[in-house]
Amino acid sequence: MPKVKIPTPLRQYTAGNPEVEVGGATAGEALGNLASEHPDLKQHLYTGDGTLRSFVNVYKGDEDIRYLEGQDTEVAEGDELSIIPSIAGGRCK
Amino acid sequence: MQMRQPLVESPNGTMELSNEEIARYSRHLIMPEVALDGQKQLKAAKVLTVGTGGLGSPLALYLAAAGIGTIGIVDFDVVDESNLQRQIIHGTSDLGRPKVESAYEKIKDINPNVEVRVHEEALTSENALEIFEDYDVIVDGTDNFPTRYLVNDACVLLGKPNVYGSIFRFEGQASVFYAEEGPCYRCLYPEPPPPGLVPSCAEGGVLGILPGAIGTIQATETLKLILGIGEPLIGRLLLYDALGMSFREMKLRKDPDCPVCGENPTVTELIDYQEFCGIPQATAAEEENGVPEITVQDLKSKLDNQEEINVLDVREPHEYEVANIGVRLIPLGELPQRLVELDQDEYFVVHCKTGARSARAVKLLQDSGFQNVYNVKGGITAWSEEIDPSVPKY
Questions:
Q1: What pTM did the predictor assign?
Q2: ipTM for the assembly
Q3: Is residue B210 helix, strand or coil?
């Protein structure tokens, strides 16, 4: 099963786990399974109509899936998907 | 060693180093990658740090020590107690002072040879191009999405590199967005997240040392660009996880359809970034869907008059431990499962740290049939400021 790396801002929705194993043969399936296993994560990954939010970038290894086959990008045992959300912090008040 | 076109040409012949400077920069001068020529390039360089907070602090300190000739600082904030855990350019004696003032003094103390240019104002679409124009490198140490997109677009329009860093809790990102040679911030994140969906550091917290790690990476990239040495983070996103103590690197590509640096750009001048990030729309929606509120003064008088009210605290237990007003704690995340514990015919007042989470709790209670539910405006922070200063403000 592929692994999905969960970034800090979203770990509160995966019971604090930095990495989650999910089933799925494509990036889209894996993310869909991730969201159904952790329902609170769903609104952070998908818009109301079920498309992946544009500020959530998903990488397979070190490649953005936008430049592979998108949601149809194949994933296999041992592959690593990473969710890279935008974070703004820096000059935190 | 990889060599690039240095961003700042060697000013050989037109600029000399004093004996004091030669002694000061000795450890640079004995490295062939910097040497006398490189040190003069650093002296000729002009770097703008946007923000003198968590990232801006280590950045400005190291850039000053390294001998950058001109450092610009943009900030309009004043030093607050909660800054001192990470903003090491400011000290306890600076509390209440403008950040640019304490930053100016600290930089000058570290290296009086630096010319410090102070921009004590908010960066806006009106002033950004004018401020950026004089600098060779812009370093982004800001804390909000509108300013990040503004910094990016202004850098693309002026053809300047944007040395990017961002932090949250235990995690940081760094890259160099330089549209002349690679992708920009919009190629990575074409659209900002809607307000409220991504927690800020003020809500989510940040490990005090984290900006030190990311800010010094930004400072390193700045120096490499100026000197034209090594491999810059152009086209690469560096991810740092302090808990796992790991660095990872993602490939970034230039998006040919990027609205600002793509083949047919649609953003050819600076826009309204508050609007772009949905801030006014969110504020309007919040006002429209606002929940009933109660001030801390009203709450105090209700409690003093021993009115029959239930006060709920919806923060987390670890926050409760820091400061509380002795009321019942039900963390927001547990509230849906624990509604059965509450009588929906009774009168409820809900508070959190500053009022955002408790507003969500009030909405949830209303949606579950509670009629009399009020949000404490300003939360326990307002209580501490206006009613009882013995309750610590965190």
A1: 0.89
A2: 0.89
A3: helix
